[in-house]
Amino acid sequence: MAKRSFPLSKVYGLLEPGPVLLLSTAHKGRINAMAMSWHTMMEFEPPLVGCVVSSRDFSFTALKATRECVLNIPAVELAQKVVDCGNSSGRSVDKFAAFGLTPAPASLVAAPLIAECHAHLECKVVDTRFVNRYSFFVLEVVQAWTDPACKDPRTLHHRGWGAFMVAGETIRLPSKMK
């Protein structure tokens, strides 16, 4: 089978690791939510998540200052709100009010949970060694929440330039992993 050269500027669309998240922060009396797809699991226990938050993003300042956030996991039903959050800046838009998102109190961080999401990971920044160079934060999940009524959420996976895949069928194969 013949392969074609692929533009390097689009490689990230082949590698996006997981669902699009709504990262929420609270800083100086303002809450914000940003769409984020550049994240990766780094460790299981304690759960560590690495993520890129661009220094151009309004959330960057809040995350760097407060060293805490919530990673909210939306399902496909929130797709348009996720895109709206990604296409606007918290500098000029109250995204919770503008896009009908409901802030709910977290238990261990000041940043809010987004009630419409099916899962939430309350996080604290534990490593900033790569922030200045790569805008890469290492977060420790200190509390996790899921909605028991949402059995098989269909999550969004960013492919780039407004294209998303939606998680589909679950298959189970023999594995020695538990």
UniProtKB/TrEMBL annotation:
Cofactor (UniProt): FMN
GO molecular-function terms, A-Z: FMN binding; oxidoreductase activity, acting on the CH-NH group of donors, NAD or NADP as acceptor
Residue ranges constituting the Flavin reductase like domain according to the UniProt record: 13-163
Keywords attached to this entry: Flavoprotein
SMART domains given in the database record: Flavin_Reduct
Family: Belongs to the flavoredoxin family.
PANTHER family recorded: FLAVOREDOXIN (PTHR43567:SF1), FLAVOREDOXIN-RELATED-RELATED (PTHR43567)
Protein name: NADH-FMN oxidoreductase RutF, flavin reductase (DIM6/NTAB) family
